[in-house]
Amino acid sequence: MKKEYVMVMVKMVVMSVIAAVVLGGLYIPTQAQLKIYQEEQRQLALVDVLPIADHFEAVKSGEETLFYQAFDASNNLVGYCFFHDQSGSQGTITLAGGVDTEYTVTGVKIMTHVETPGLGAKITESFFTDQFKGVPVSDLMLSKNDGAIDSITGATVSSQAVIDGIHVKIGEIKAN
To answer: Taking a C-beta distance cutoff of 8 angstroms, is the pair 123, 155 a contact?
Structure first.
């Protein structure tokens, strides 16, 4: 009986070690592919939030990208795009945004979030993000504060977080 118990334990340890080695071996190439995918998604988001742009140039501070200048095919500046991490109701909301040279919003896309499913998670839906298009920065606030953006019922904090994130980045763009 004792010998059988020891054999079962040895087999379990060997199987666990094999599984750990296989998972460890797959982790590194998977992470590299994940970074490539994330960068592709960021590039697609730039086009989504400022569709009239032909190409984008990063404006950096050291190694950090602050925002992107957007140019048309004739190399004329048509606006700015950005990514921003903003605190939401349940955690961080990563958003992409675009504004034209007059600081009118051209598009908003929620990249990642951990907001409450069925409530705050509705910030990703087009009925919410589409209402930002064409809104000048002066009207970029919730309708309850005389702005142009209707908040999501039951998710005012998440709705306000998106607006706050856009304001932060527009302020950075104006400062640079």
So the answer is: yes
Asked if residue 31 belongs to a domain, the reply is no
Edge-to-edge strands of the sheet including 64-71? Answer: 55-61, 64-71, 77-87, 92-100, 105-112
Give the residue among 157, 88, 100, 101 at the shortest CA–CA distance from 132.
100
Is the pTM here over 0.70, yes or no?
Answer: yes
Task: Quote the CA–CA distance of 18 and 147 in Å, as a whole number.
Answer: 59
Which residue stretches of the chain have pLDDT < 50? none
87: left (phi over 0), alpha (psi -120 to 50) or beta: beta
Secondary element (H or E) of residue 163: helix 156-175
Answer whether 139's CB lies under 8 Å from 123's CB: no
pLDDT of residue 125: 92
In a domain, 61, yes or no: yes
Chain center to CA of 77? 24
Q: How far apart are the C-alpha atoms of 80 and 54, rounded to whole Å?
A: 12
Q: Which two tokens stand for residue 16?
A: 């666990």
Q: Which domain holds residue 101?
A: 46-175
